[in-house]
Write a structure and sequence with these properties.
Elements: H1 6-10, H2 24-32, E1 37-41, H3 48-56, E2 61-65, H4 69-73, H5 78-84, E3 89-93, H6 101-114, E4 122-126, H7 130-136, E5 144-148, H8 154-157, H9 161-167, H10 171-174, H11 179-201, H12 207-219, E6 223-224, H13 227-234, H14 238-250, E7 254-257, E8 273-276, H15 279-285, H16 291-296, H17 300-315, E9 321-326, E10 332-338, E11 344-349, H18 359-368, E12 372-376, E13 383-385, E14 389-392, H19 394-401
Parallel strand pairs: 1-4, 1-5, 2-3, 3-4, 11-12, 12-14
Antiparallel strand pairs: 6-8, 7-8, 9-10, 10-11, 13-14
Helix pairs in contact: 9-15, 11-12, 11-15, 13-14
Length: 402
């Protein structure tokens, strides 16, 4: 469960607090006690290794970084290595670098199951989505459960929302001593993905082309995906645009928010909306260096919308579904949550401190029939607008839906 005391616990104030209590750690520990293998997935530098090492302190374990040649040398004979550490939790970091390990892990898990050892054998960390890992191997199907670690949320950090929004949720960016250090870290993050990670998984496309695509997506933050338009601007085929953006989605760099759809007579938008997932990376791609520059930029409203969506996603239980609604007649809901608790939430996102709602939101609600209607705005007070729509701040909204 989300620890609502984090706000008080995490703001001890250096520039920003250095220790962030990631609420997902308790979910991972519980799963380790139940499954032979647990996978923590999430983008590079999101905090997976730190999380794993915290977990390792509470149990006998061995840690291997599969990007470290010294660690890799210990896996020259992986079966022997795993056998000699059968009494420990084996942590394998950056597993996507060695997909050939998956069949071996399956064999070890099955042997251990035969001896009655069923849980707490492997903790696997990967900077790629479950779907991308499955392209390498289906070997662990039925033997592993995955959890995604997202960038730090506002409830976890206790840092002022405006600063969190500007810097984004990556630990080294959010907790940097000053904005210059935060910005430099984000520039390096972008370069690492362009020069190493994207080429590792995808076609050998020039880094300059991928940077242009990434930047174009930033300028179109929160807009419906138009592969044809991007194709013309970049001089690449539509097929290539789909392939590149699918890869960026698999690497947790962008989110394609799918449209809500039911079999109705209304003409609904069918294309996804695309967001750069981390607001700090978005702002770096757009060369936004300060809160004043952000407020003056045309993308500010969509930046806030994406920031709200990612924070909400970061605390939702696995299995909840996110979408948006837009009809040809102008009816629109920014975010629809179909929660595992059985409730449907219709959420409108407003960057202003004085929220108001358009007729299109209420028209869309007639179609979606949500259990609860909310508007998230840039304030902290909670109050009702017309038609039982609850207006509240981002942190308050997150605490209501957890």
């Amino acid at each position: 469960m989300l620890n609502k005391n984090n706000l008080a616990n995490n703001t001890k104030n250096s520039k920003f607090a250095r220790m962030i209590d990631r609420w997902i750690i308790h979910k991972v520990e519980k799963k380790i006690s139940r499954f032979p293998a647990v996978g923590i997935i999430g983008s590079r530098q999101v905090g997976k290794t730190t999380l794993a090492k915290i977990i390792a302190k509470n149990t006998a374990s061995v840690y291997l970084d599969l990007e470290n040649p010294l660690h890799l040398s210990q896996l020259d004979d992986p079966l022997s290595f795993f056998s000699s550490h059968a009494d420990k939790l084996v942590i394998l970091d950056e597993i996507q670098r060695m997909p050939e390990l998956f069949p071996i892990l399956r064999s070890v898990i099955d042997q251990n199951r035969a001896r009655g050892e069923k849980a707490g054998q492997f903790l696997i960390l990967g900077s790629a989505s479950v779907e991308l890992l499955r392209q390498s191997s289906e070997s662990l199907a039925g033997r592993i459960v995955y959890e995604e670690l997202t960038p730090i949320t506002v409830v976890e950090s206790g840092i002022p929302v405006s600063s969190h929004w500007l810097r984004g949720g990556y630990p080294d960016s959010l907790l940097a001593h000053d904005m210059e250090a935060s910005s430099e870290w984000r520039q390096a993050f972008i370069s690492t993905y362009l020069e190493r990670d994207i080429p590792f998984f995808g076609p050998r496309v020039p880094a300059a082309t991928m940077r242009r695509l990434w930047t174009m997506l930033a300028h179109n933050q929160g807009m419906t995906f138009n592969a044809s338009q991007l194709s013309k601007s970049l001089g690449n085929s539509v097929t290539s645009i789909f392939r590149y953006t699918d890869l960026m989605e698999d690497l947790f760099l962008i989110r394609k928010l799918r449209p809500w759809y039911r079999n109705t007579g209304k003409r609904l938008t069918k294309s996804p909306k695309v967001f750069i997932r981390d607001s700090g990376i978005l702002h770096t791609l757009l060369n936004i260096q300060s809160e004043d520059a952000l407020q003056a930029h045309p993308v500010v409203g969509f930046s806030w919308e994406g920031f709200v969506i990612e924070n909400i996603y970061g605390i939702l239980p696995k299995g909840s579904e996110l979408s948006y609604y837009r009809s040809s007649g102008g009816a629109e809901i920014d975010l629809i949550i179909e929660h595992t608790n059985g409730k449907t939430y219709a959420i409108e996102v407003k960057k202003s401190a004085v929220p108001s709602l358009e007729r299109g939101f209420f028209e869309a609600c007639k179609e979606v029939k949500p259990d609860e209607k909310m508007v998230v705005y840039r304030g902290d007070d909670e109050f009702y607008l017309r038609n039982e729509v609850l207006a509240l701040g981002l942190q308050g909204m997150m605490e209501k839906i957890i």
